[in-house]
């Protein structure tokens, strides 16, 4: 892997973010609007239903972490779609650039975008709703790491599926993470789910991340168990995503499909 080629991929997508208002809205504006909505909702619950302040904080914390995961997973897949929409895919892979170098550059750019969006919504939560996540942020970093790793794995799998089934399924780039949301226990604990959904929920790194987040923000300390389970599951999903994408990509290149994907 050559750093100058990774840097070239980063520059390519950075220039697009600077010139494309859609990217700015996706990275900052929409997450901020979502945080404003959740903030007003928690104010309503606190005033009319007198929920505890700690519960309102858990809802806002979950909204911040879910926004990072959703944005990152979406942007990894959409970054590849940008190459298809601009008919740039053949140009990229006719160069010495490898798949791993391209994906690495794309991941770094989108990670920076996700962190900028997280900073923006965290400031809104602090300034508008007196919820300060920054003192707890260090303890949440391991859970954020698991969310980012799972987002990478999902983005790579979705990209591979687009290679196989073309842009007919490009909607998965925006919707796939939302399909996992009900069983990821983002805004409620595992005990809220029916028992038959528990095995599915425990098989997702997102569930362990949000269960650990609630434990940390409620003052119960860092959950090593949830972090290790999330990390172990991510290792499995990441390995599957890597080999799945390599298989799909090499099959497409061998059959000359790279020039036909639309």
Q: Mind sketching the topology for me?
A:
Elements: H1 3-19, H2 21-48, H3 53-85, H4 89-93, H5 99-129, H6 134-165, H7 172-180, H8 198-202, H9 205-217, H10 224-254
Helix pairs in contact: 1-2, 1-5, 2-3, 2-5, 3-5, 3-6, 3-7, 3-9, 5-6, 6-7, 6-9, 6-10, 9-10
Name its key features.
262 residues, globular, 10 helices, mainly alpha
Short structural description:
This protein has 262 residues and is mainly α.
Described by strand count, sense and barrel closure, the largest sheet is: none
Q: Give a count of the beta strands, DSSP E runs of length 2 or more.
A: 0
Radius of gyration: 19 Å
Structural class estimated from helices and strands: mainly alpha
How would you portray this structure in words?
With 262 residues, this protein is an all-alpha fold. It has one domain. Helices cover 78% and strands 0% of the residues. The protein has 10 helices and no strands. Helix 1 (3-19) packs across helix 5 (99-129) and helix 5 (99-129) packs across helix 6 (134-165). It starts with a helix and ends in an 8-residue tail after the last helix.
